[in-house]
Amino acid sequence: MKASLGKKLSIAAIAFLIPCVAGAQEKKPPLELTLDDAIKIALSENPSVRVADLEVEKKKYAKKSAQSALYPQIEAVGQYSRSLKKQVMYMDGAFDMESMMGDILNPIIEGTEKTFAGGNPNYASGTLGKNIADSRAPAVESSDSGDGGISVGRDNNWSGGLQLNWPIIVPTLWKSLELSSLDVELAVESARSSKINMVNAVRKAYYGVLLAKDALQVFQESYDNAILSYNDINNKFKQGVVSEFDLIRADVNVKNIKPNLIQAQNAYNLATLSLKALMGIDMEQEISVPGSLLDYQEGLYAEILALDTSLGNNSDLKKFDIQTEQLQKTLQLYKAQYLPTIAITGNYTYMSMNNDFRFGDYRWNPYSTVSLNISIPIFDGFKKSNDIRQTKATLEQMKWQREDVVRNLQLAVNSDVSNMTNYVEQVFSTKDVVAQAKKGYEISRKLYDTGMGTLLDLNTAQLGLTQASLSFTQAIYNFLTSKADLDKTLGIEAPAIE
Fold first, then answer.
1. Between helices 244-279 and 455-490, what is the axis angle to 10°?
2. Of 148-162, 323-337, 381-395, the least confident
3. What is the b/e burial string over 443-465, where b = at least 16 CB atoms within 10 angstroms of the residue's CB?
4. Dist. CA 156–CA 247, nearest whole Å
5. Are 481 and 19 in contact, with CB atoms under 8 Å apart?
6. What is residue 128's predicted lDDT score, i.e. its pLDDT?
7. What CATH number is attached to the domain comprising 438?
8. What DSSP string runs through 405-432?
């Protein structure tokens, strides 16, 4: 019984805590965003922008890595080798030790034997020479001539020390470093292009939220007016002033508007989700976008008059020019391969040769050299000349491709400017239409209230006001998105419209 009571109390406590937690989550205020705020957050939080910035950092490290080849390269080296079969050295002619020393040793041996024979009658002549010959180590026979040889070296060979390699004049290395610098420039421009694309996407998404918000407001007002009309007609029907047919039509009008209102709400939710995804923030974070597209209607003509349509900051064109410069540096690198290279090399090594592993008894001898190496290319099967011709052909291709890119960019700029001019005209024309539609709706309502108008006239006026309001906000949205696309083409990083 006590266990059952404790279980019930636990369930009651959990049931009490769940609404409290939910209430705490609901109380979290939404994040209010201006256009500048949305852009700043996107540039700091969006993964694609971070990836582009890290790419710049990678290229800078790659440039420093390439520059390291200019410095002396010093290595500690060590080697051990075991002689399985020693090398044999042969000496012919004047270098035959037995031939060279025979004229000196033979008289000494003969004189010594005579001395031994004079002092010892039992001494056998030739004994000393025979003993010397028997004591001498047998000579290594050659497989070709049978001449004797001398074994060279010992079983264990040890060496250890430092090696130096310092390039002094390497024209190809210098050109490679220039290419590395251009890689950094290209990465920086690519990062700038990524930011420009992000600003463009965020601006259009932000304007999309405002468009969905204004459309939702238009449909909400239309729905509220339809409800107001239905309630008024319902009261009049109860009083017997209007027919049941008007009541049915008013009810049908409300139900026809309701799906549009739901669709507008869904569009607004989707637009906010798209904006949050671009900004790189938590999708569960509520956001609030203040204002309306109507706030941007002032100064549209001034925006067009202040346009600078030069393509000097276009990111695609800048990247194309950097790639062209890279090809030119590559051509210079291929030409530099015909030039000689000079490098300094050196080593300082200790060596030891032994027949055992008694390391304490080893004798280490230093050995060092310094050399100046010069390498002059002579012939490589026409590889360099063909590489140069191929690079020149690619440069010629890029020259014509650049002209085509410039023409397409100019076409895009002219198209955006033309669209902006057209949308400005639509904004001012639809603005007048909205004013007239509002006035027409008010007149239709008054006429219907006095019995001089029909419900059809009232519904038609309401529909005309809804369409005019949507067209007005759509025209402003079209202008703003065209301006965002134009800024992207011109390479403008910050939004021109606040």
1. 10
2. 148-162
3. ebbeebeeeebebebbbebbbbb
4. 114
5. no
6. 64
7. 1.20.1600.10
8. HHHHHHHHHHHHHHHHHHHHHHHHHHHH
Residue 401 forms part of a structural domain: yes
Angle at 194 between CA 192 and CA 197, to 5 degrees: 110
Do residue 33 and residue 114 come from a single domain? Answer: no
Contact 209, 289 (CB under 8 A): yes
In a domain, 22, yes or no: no
Q: Is position 7 within any domain? A: no
Selection from 185, 170, 186 nearest residue 67 by Cα: 170
pLDDT of 52 over the 90 cut: no
Taking alpha carbons only, the member of 162, 85, 81, 76 closest to residue 354 is: 81
pLDDT digit string (tens) for 169-193? 888 888 888 888 899 999 999 888 8
CB 343 within 8 A of CB 165: yes
Q: CA 472, 476, 481, 485 torsion: positive or negative?
A: positive
Q: Which residue has the tokens 């009810």?
A: 251
Same domain, 184 and 165: no
Decide if 348 contacts 450 (C-beta within 8 A). Answer: no
- Segment 129-173, tens digit of pLDDT: 666 666 655 554 444 444 567 888 888 999 999 999 999 988 888
Rounded distance between C-alpha atoms, residue 322 and residue 187, angstroms:
10
Residue 434 placed within a domain: yes
For the record, the structure tokens of 11 come out as 């369930």
Distance CA 155, CA 152 (A): 10
Report which DSSP code applies to 60. Answer: H
Q: How many structural domains does the chain have?
A: 3
Q: pLDDT for 273-316, tens place per residue?
A: 999 998 888 888 888 899 899 888 887 878 887 888 888 889 99
Higher pLDDT, 493 or 407: 407
Same-domain status, 275 and 311: yes
Q: What is the mean pLDDT of the chain?
A: 83
Q: How far is the CA of 103 from the CAs of 108, 109, 126, 138, 252, in angstroms?
A: 9, 11, 17, 21, 139
Helix, strand or coil, per DSSP, at residue 32: strand
Question: Which is it for the CA torsion 177, 178, 181, 187, positive or negative?
Answer: negative
The residue range of the domain holding 369 is 73-86+153-169+341-376
